[in-house]
UniProtKB/TrEMBL annotation, chains A, B:
The keyword Ligase does not apply. Keywords: DNA-binding, Transcription, Transcription regulation. Residues 19-86 form the HTH gntR-type domain. This is Putative HTH-type transcriptional regulator YdfH. One of its GO terms (molecular function) is DNA-binding transcription factor activity. It holds the Pfam family GntR. InterPro entries: GntR_C, TF_FadR/GntR_C, Tscrpt_reg_HTH_GntR, WH-like_DNA-bd_sf, WH_DNA-bd_sf. The gene is ydfH_7. It comes from the Bacteria. The lineage of its organism: Bacteria, Pseudomonadati, Pseudomonadota, Alphaproteobacteria, Rhodobacterales. The keyword Oxidoreductase does not apply.
DNA sequence: TTCAATAATACTGTATGCAGCATTTAGCGC
DNA sequence: GCGCTAAATGCTGCATACAGTATTATTGAA
């Protein structure tokens, strides 16, 4: 549930963080699944993966259990773990749920956010726009997600941020597929601009509406590339 | 994330289910935490607990990682796992989130539920009322939760049910504390009656309002017994 | 040639053992 | 008697080894 990425702070002289092996493995496996190196339906062979990562089976198994609880893999008795396959309905359900969460967050954020907080989001937005113009798609995606997570964080509700994070992670792999055309991309960017404006105006209903529409677009983008 | 309780079906001649050991341990530990046999802040000693449950450390460790992802325990590097302590704000956040989830579910449920579905909920409700009159508090609680889970299930969104289930589990321990007086209990029962009526009338806004108020009451009940 | 039954293989599930870190306690100096 | 240092203990983190189960291959007969 709680994200594991305990990235060491960028400062020098910061305390040396000794990340437990199973944590590191969780991160690696997550990335491998998200980036498609472990395709959906793939059975995870403990010996193989363990050898590839240079770790023993015990911490690897612990990591797998963690990911199972996160919903990225399924545990089949006596047959190990398989990378979860998401059908169209499941993805749609998750997007519906994310919408609900973000809209809840929007209301709270408009009540709670300081100008400073919103400035932080605005800054992410500006950097994202820069990536849009320079065509840096990867970085664009990352900032995009950071903005959404940021808005959720403004609601100041740890449980909410947790859940949202898990869902985002599950969908990351899917979003990799959704390569939108330039015109849709442009409209998405425009929507983001509106989002920030609504947030700065503390206009919760408007922000809510935009977020909702934004996610509907996301669904439109990915729905045709899905199985079942 | 996904509940592990793979209870064997009550039929005879049903396939014999061999539950993996780590699954069984997850359930046991969850119960121990919920029922307070493992108090918040307690460090989980692998050797000790393993001996007590009669299992070896490996599956136990796997179970702990699973519960960590569920948010019931914290993993402290080189110091093992400690049972998570929830402060007042965290509990309030979780209840706010549950409210948001249930209200989202309510809207969907009113759109989707068949008469048959609603009949199922009504039946649970009637059994709960029976427990209320007979004073069987434990069974009352269980049916109460089953009803809420049931309404969420009517929204036909697996991800939603998952999240709701996890939050319910986290709060179970807290709810154990909230021993309401008879008059509050009576009003809670009355609200439940209204809930079912609203559901049968497919009156989503009303159902939503009742659920919201219901959870506010729940918060009122528990908030004074919390640390921090 | 095809299907079935049996044996072999490979992988998961569980237990045990060892090394390193944290904490506590005992000993020593002041 | 009090504080500091150091050894000792206990626990976690990781690896390895063994047992049981599912799957595949092989051999036999129809």
């Amino acid at each position: 549930m709680t994200p594991v990425n305990a990235q060491p702070s960028p400062e020098h002289s910061a305390r040396i963080e000794r990340q437990p092996l199973h944590d590191a493995i969780v991160s690696r496996l997550r990335d491998m699944i998200i980036e498609g190196h472990l395709a959906p339906g793939t059975r995870i062979n403990e010996g193989q993966i363990g050898a590839a990562l240079g770790v023993s089976r015990t911490p690897l198994r612990e990591a797998i259990k963690y990911l199972a609880s996160e919903g990225l893999v399924d545990l089949v008795p006596s047959r190990g773990a398989v990378v979860k396959t998401f059908g169209a309905k499941e993805v749609r359900d998750m997007i519906d749920l994310i919408r609900s969460l973000e809209q809840f967050a929007a209301t709270r954020a408009c009540e709670l956010a300081t100008n400073n907080d919103i400035g932080g989001i605005r800054e992410l937005h500006d950097r994202m726009i820069a990536c849009y113009h320079s065509g840096d798609r990867m970085q664009y995606y990352k900032l995009n997600q950071a903005i959404h997570s940021g808005i959720v964080a403004l609601a100041d509700n740890a449980a909410l941020s947790d859940m949202h994070g898990v869902l985002q992670t599950r969908l990351k792999r899917i979003r990799f597929i959704g390569h939108e055309g330039p015109e849709k991309w442009a409209s998405a960017v425009a929507e983001h601009e509106e989002m920030i404006a609504a947030l700065e105006a503390r206009d919760a209903p408007r922000l809510s509406a935009i977020l909702g529409h934004h996610l509907t677009l996301a669904w439109e983008r990915v729905k045709d590339g899905l199985p079942a």
